[in-house]
Amino acid sequence: MAGLRRLDAFQKVRRDVQSKSALGGLITLVAISAAAILFVSEIFLYLRGVTRHSLHLAQSTHVPLTRPSHSISDMPGKIPLKFMITFPHLTCRQLDFALDDASHSSGTLEKVYGRQSLTLRTPTLSELRLAMETGATPAQTRNGCTILGDLKIPLVAGEFAITITRRTWAEATSTLLLGLLDDRQIPDSGLSQKLEFNVSHYIHYIRFGTPFPRAKDAPLEGRLHTIQNKMGGIALQQIHVKLIPTIYQRFLAASTTYQLSVVDHTVQPETLVAKGVPLLPGIAVSFDFTPLAVHHVESRENILVFLSSLVSIVGGVFVTVGLATGMLVHSAAAVAKKLD
After folding, report:
1. Distance between CA 131 and CA 84 in Å, rounded?
2. How far apart are CA 39 and CA 31, in angstroms?
3. Are 90 and 144 within 8 A, CB to CB?
4. Pairing label, strands 236-250, 292-299
5. Domain residue ranges in the chain
6. H or E element in which residue 263 lies
7. Membrane-spanning residues where (predicted)?
8. Share of the chain above pLDDT 90, in %
């Protein structure tokens, strides 16, 4: 025991030579408060983790060739494509959907992507109210069309479009040429009806793969596109999407997500006719994948480093306060001695 006493680095000051003061108590409270704040802050920062970003080459994926008559639902190298778009002025019979070389009107879309890949239905009143700036009444629910898609597309550049059918486009062009827009009498019909070919629409969502969870906003969700021109709202909205593969690793779990860079513009009907644009009025979305991938990694420090920081905080605060207090006490004593 005597040998251990000689090794004691934490020598105790005798209580009979200790003196306590209000100033010392105040200094102790300050030290405890500072240590507690730093202690809690260190725990919070550890639980929150550290975020690191880095760029890497995107992983290449082999996409096997397939014939249009064969389903690609079981092909490797695919991502889900989900969308919901409402056209408040057009019926579902006036609209067509096409993805690359497969279309709904020809029946090839169901063969390639499955029968449950596309749904066309009458929109609900709430969907119409979102798609119309002036609101919608229950009587207007007989018009309009909501298109829902749930497909799996290969990881290659492509394009999908929701446009009016060729028959509807022929009716629209003949109507425009004859100047029979809005409420007008149709020759040889004996009927007065309102001709509507307005392709204004509301994008509830367009999602490629799993959206990046840390994105502040989704550029292709909740977007109202109202077309106002002398042709009664006939135009083509072209949207160009760059998909940025993103590896999102949150501590131990990792997932592949996609960030979107979106640019869009509207092609007026005069341009469609004059320049012979192959697409019809509606909405066309072209997409491509960047060769670089972003790695977004959220991690925590090593547990040993964290524990060392906690111990250092408590010990460092009291040692610093002790040194500062000792310096002040000795300085005050030296000044008092000189004054005497």
Report:
1. 12
2. 12
3. yes
4. parallel
5. 77-298
6. strand 253-267
7. 21-47, 303-329
8. 23
Place of tokens 């959907």: 97
DSSP assignment of 84-119 equals EEEESSS-GGGEEEEETTEETTTTHHHHHH-GGGEE
* DSSP 3-state of 295: strand
- The amino acid that residue 54 corresponds to is S
Q: Which two tokens stand for residue 165?
A: 């059918």
Give the neighbor-by-neighbor strand order of the sheet with 201-208.
118-121, 145-154, 78-87, 201-208, 221-225
**Type of residue numbered 219:** P
Q: Kindly list the distances between the CA atom of residue 304 and the CA atoms of 45, 49, 221, 261, in Å, as whole numbers in the listed order.
A: 15, 15, 44, 41
Of 184, 263, 269, nearest to 233 by C-alpha is 269
Report yes or no: 262 and 239 within 8 Å, Cβ to Cβ. Answer: yes
Amino acid (one-letter) located at 283: I
Q: 109 with 102: CB under 8 angstroms?
A: yes
- One-letter amino acid of 42: E
* Residue 129 near residue 204 (C-beta atoms within 8 A): no
Copy the structure tokens of residue 187: 């020759």
Q: Do 286 and 241 form a contact (C-beta atoms < 8 A)?
A: yes
Place of tokens 């890949």: 117
Distance separating alpha carbons of residues 236 and 268, to the nearest angstrom? 7
Sign for the CA dihedral angle at 41, 46, 47, 48 comes to positive
Query: Residue for token digits 């490797």?
Result: 76
Note whether 89 and 144 are within 8 A (CB). yes
In 171-234, which ranges are E strands? 182-185, 192-195, 201-208, 221-225
Task: Indicate the pTM of the whole model.
Answer: 0.68
Q: How far apart are CA 97 and CA 80, in angstroms?
A: 17
| pLDDT tens sequence across 137-155 | 555 556 789 999 999 988 8
Buried b (16+ CB within 10 A) or exposed e, 261-300: eeebeebbbeebeeeeeeebbbbbbebebeeebbebbeee
161-188 pLDDT, tens per residue?
999 998 888 887 777 666 544 444 444 4
